[in-house]
């Protein structure tokens, strides 16, 4: 899948789940819960950022009452936790075969990204910072703000890390 196809899939996904654009940042926690996920902070002994695990033959994964779990590293900032949740939603949407009689999917975020992780990153970026909303907000920023303050302000608005906002602004040629 190329970036355009992934962006299109993100837009279709948002429409399908009936996401209402009524607040500043995109509430990925709410979206994950609506999809049926139980979310949790996890402690890892290594550099793992998070994981997704789904097995609908088991209703009590990892001692929860759930068959769908997204876990994030408790040490991450709220912005990066949101990114990991969006990334796991992307794996669920793009890479989990939902045509099976019973759903089973598991993936752990370790350093070193494969093709599916790169696709999930693009989906996450489009989910957290939708193109039109991002452009509109960027254009509304005060002209007297310098570049760093613009990036910082837009990152706060979308509740993402500044590096994410900066990459998105570059990608959309806003700066
Ligand atoms: Zn991944």
Short description:
By secondary structure, this protein is α+β, with helices and mostly antiparallel strands. 49% of the residues lie in helices and 13% in strands.
Overview features:
175 residues, alpha+beta, Arc Repressor Mutant, subunit A, four-stranded mixed β-sheet, 4 strands, 13% strand, binds zinc ion
Mind explaining what this structure looks like?
The protein is 49% helix and 13% strand. With 175 residues, the protein is of the alpha+beta class. Strands 1-3-2-4 form a four-stranded mixed beta sheet. The model has no long low-confidence stretch (mean pLDDT 93). The chain has two domains: 3-128, Arc Repressor Mutant, subunit A (Orthogonal Bundle); 130-175. The protein has helices at 3-16, 28-35, 78-95, 115-128, 131-140, 147-158, 162-171; strands at 38-42, 50-55, 68-73, 104-109. Helix 1 crosses helix 4, helix 3 (78-95) crosses helix 4 and helix 6 (147-158) crosses helix 7. Residues 87, 91, 107, 109, 117, 120 line the site of zinc ion (ZN). Zinc ion binds at residues 87, 91, 107, 109, 117, 120.
């Amino acid at each position: 899948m190329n970036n355009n196809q992934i962006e299109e899939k993100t837009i279709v996904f948002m429409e399908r789940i009936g996401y209402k654009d009524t607040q500043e940042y995109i509430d990925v926690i709410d979206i994950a819960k609506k999809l049926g996920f139980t979310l949790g902070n996890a402690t890892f002994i290594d550099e793992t950022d998070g994981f997704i695990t789904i097995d609908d033959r088991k209703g009590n994964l990892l001692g929860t009452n759930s068959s769908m779990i997204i876990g994030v590293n408790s040490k991450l900032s709220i912005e990066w936790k949101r990114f990991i949740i969006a990334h796991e939603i992307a794996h669920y949407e793009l890479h989990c075969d939902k045509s099976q009689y019973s759903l089973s999917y598991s993936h752990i975020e370790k350093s070193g990204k494969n093709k599916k992780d790169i696709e999930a990153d693009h989906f996450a970026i489009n989910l957290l910072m939708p193109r039109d909303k991002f452009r509109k907000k960027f254009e509304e920023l005060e002209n007297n703000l310098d570049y760093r303050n613009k990036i910082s302000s837009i990152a706060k608005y979308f509740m993402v890390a500044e590096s994410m906002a900066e990459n998105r602004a570059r990608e959309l040629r806003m700066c």
